[in-house]
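Quick note —
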Amino acid sequence: MNSEMFEFVAPRLIFGNGCIKEAGVVAEELGATKVFIVTDKGIVKAGLLEELKKSLEDSDLNYEIWDKVSSNPKDNETEQIAKAYKEAEANLLMGIGGGSAMDAAKAAGILVTNKEPINQYEGCNKFKNPIPALIAIPTTSGTGSEASMWCVITDTRRNAKMSLGGPGMLPKVALVDPALTKGLPPDLTAGTGMDALSHAVESYLSTGSIPPSDALALHSLRLIAENLPLAVANGENMEARTNMALASFEANLAASNTGCGAVHSLGHQLTTDFGVHHGISMGIMMPYVMQFNMIGCMARMRDIAEAMGKDTSMMTHRETALQAAVTIYELQKDIGLATNLKQVGVKEDDIPKISEKASLDVDMSTNPRRATVEDIKMIYEMALEENIEK
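Predicted structure written out below.
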């Protein structure tokens, strides 16, 4: 490693099956008198709030629930949540659900302690005052938002994803209970798992990578390669579910500290413009972006292939790097997800517009190979035709 100074930030982690029962005690430790819970109607309908509510009640804590978070939270939603938080006179935030609920809670937290609008805080450390104390509780093993000092919100004026971040947004506690993921159907298990994988891959290849993030990313890659197919095949496999919950936390803890790359920049456009699930869009774009990036990170791509269980002893450096991309492509296909852009409704005529938008995405700044708009068009075209080099 080089001799440059680096900083590594992480929340307190409470991990294990059944640990949701500790929510009330943890909230008390943080000085809560009234808790504001941010979630979505699917979480409520699935009954995933019941243990949480009981835990808060056992600790004699009042709470209010906001259950209107959309699948891709928007700027105006965060303003509504912040207003409701203030009116409730709450003093602790909880985000429970997938990345949408946790990200919405974080962004609303910015507006509780800083002025509107949320759009002015795109980027890193753009807001002055830290958010209220936040407990983040994931119900999927994918986004890893519980580990991250970043959130992603849709700017409705531009129809573009905004990444907002800084240590002042980091959850105080990540409460990771793998049992909450047990009811997740195979397609969502697969999609969220690819989201976790994209964080591990992009953190390890990021120009901002540091030793702690490298260790977390590689361990996460091993866990995902071994356990994601098992969790998709049988959602009752709690060993696989537990390992995926840990992998998701590790992967985005790494990415939170390093930044991501072009996979996220190109994938974001599939979500905003075509409604593709975030994790599926990451899985589609990953192999093609990795092949483009290869000349800037060949040795590290070899490490990814080896972490995912491939024997590279008889391969050239180039072959091992390609093996990393192919391994991820094959994993995406094995777990039943789309592997090209045509499958999700993208046409060739769409590529110029989404390429321009992707070139402006903040995650491009830590990609290991500089990419022009023409380069981005080429990557999208590779993904459109499923042109993967093997």
